[in-house]
Design goal:
Shape: elongated
Distance between the termini: 37 Å
Number of helices: 5
Strand content: under 5%
Helix content: over 70%
Oligomer: single chain
Structural class: mainly alpha
Length: 139
């Protein structure tokens, strides 16, 4: 196995998700846009929650983990919801901007909404998941 991917690659892909949604959903009616936003947001929430939980649930600790993996399901879901909602909600205004034929502003606005969602997803992660993950050695 090679080295892990650079963090800027997932962030770049993530920042383009609302842009892609905006250009894809422009042909849909308003009702179908909301259905698409809910479907995409739900899918992104599920994937983000699962990936985050898998990354933090089983730390490699010599003296055992502080938290049981089941205690990390709800915090992972909170962060996953922030990520999924950011993608879904960011795609809707981007679609409106694309519909007004301002394509470059749609790219800028969609990417900015994704970076704002990234910031809002990191806040609950820091609040809920901060602290030591491993037990300290016995004295």
């Amino acid at each position: 196995m090679g080295p892990p991917p650079e963090p800027r690659v997932p962030c770049a892909v993530w920042s383009l998700a609302p842009v892609a949604a905006g250009f894809t959903w422009v042909q849909l009616t308003t009702e179908r846009r909301f259905v698409a936003a809910v479907a995409v947001g739900t899918a992104v929430t599920a994937v983000a929650t699962l990936l985050l939980w898998l990354a933090i649930a089983h730390p490699d600790c010599e003296f055992g983990a502080v938290r049981d993996p089941s205690q990390l399901v709800v915090p992972s879901l909170i962060v996953g919801l922030a990520i999924g909602a950011g993608v879904a909600i960011g795609g809707l205004p981007t679609t409106a901007i694309v519909g007004n034929r301002h394509r470059w502003w749609a790219v800028v606005g969609g990417a900015a909404s994704a970076w704002g969602a990234l910031f809002l997803a990191i806040l609950p992660a820091l609040i809920v998941l901060s602290g030591p993950g491993c037990n300290r050695p016995p004295v």
